[in-house]
Amino acid sequence: MFSITPSVRSNTADILDTFSQLEDDDDDPPLTDPVGRIASSRVFIRTADLPHMKLSVRNIQQSLSPSKFPLLDYFHQPSSDPPLPTIPHDVHESWVALDDGTTGMGKLGGMAPLAPAVTSALVQTGLEAAMTKSMWTPNGPTMKLLSGGKWDGTIFQSTNDGRPVPVPHARGSKEENDALVWVGEFGHKYYGHDIPAARCEGIVNMSPRELVDLLLDSSRVKEYNKMSIGREDIMIFCNDVNRVTKIIVGRSKPPLLGKTLVLKSLLHMEELPAGSGGGGGGGGKQHCGYVIVSRAIVLKDDLDVPVDPKVLNSEMLMGLNIIRAIEGEEDRCVLINLNHLRSPMIPVYLAKKLALGAAVNFLNDIRTSSKR
Prior knowledge:
Blueprint: H1 12-24, H2 34-39, E1 43-46, H3 52-62, E2 95-97, H4 115-130, E3 136-138, H5 140-146, E4 180-184, E5 197-204, H6 208-216, E6 228-240, E7 243-252, E8 260-271, E9 275-276, E10 285-286, E11 289-296, E12 298-299, E13 311-326, E14 329-342, H7 348-370
Parallel strand pairs: 8-13
Antiparallel strand pairs: 1-2, 1-12, 3-4, 4-5, 5-14, 6-7, 7-8, 8-11, 9-10, 11-13, 13-14
């Protein structure tokens, strides 16, 4: 079972800087009516299973002046009350607002104070889960591939050292198409804990930058997802070269399901920490890749949307793509995909098989895309 241990990689200072910028932004409406602003927030997310949230929330609260900034539920402190009356109340849940109530469709900006803490906690929790070997059980074919020890220097290597990883197979070899898959369970007892997760790892013949650009571009989803009927960016918080944060809605039509599968998620990308040395002999920083994390969100707008029997809303409890640079090769990378998906129509006993199949298909479809 997976448990969290404190990470040496902390973004608390970045979170506080971002919060300060949000509150000091002259383009934002003054906080004379903070209650009105939180009432206008549209996007909410679950955070109870993210242990790194607690420290970040405490630091943000300590930076506030209670007389000037009253601590508001969702905005400055998580709340167990669900943002929609259609969601069952869970006293152990922690809901947080992601937008500050000023952001329109497709508009850049408007993050709520705790939103940077959410993205930081998601990244840290996702990276720790992906690299905790004891959490994962390989399937039969993967056990055979691992038995020779060739992959030992690549899999489950910490991202904290800031280094590219070696790979056991050369470009053009048959073995470079290995797909390593594991099934695992999160050790918490919060929402979705009973649903198995899948982990997949393999080599992709694309540079880390090429792959991250492909996965971030909503207009290109159909290049690697045959079932997709489109993905839309509905709210953009940050869109820099090495940091992207946005709200997306993806739609797909899985075969035999007879329904449109809809995923509404927070998507966040940032660079993996860079290591020193190896910068072409100049002693500079060594780029080692990117991480993309996603999680289901709740839109207040959905309260007024009629139920469509042809639509199935699923939830990405934890979606993670780690794109790692390879030692000495700029045009290849290692892709690690962690997928923890909840779908109301899929029984738990089938979820394991479907998750493993989906993970392998995703990796192979990315590889096919790289050949175009």
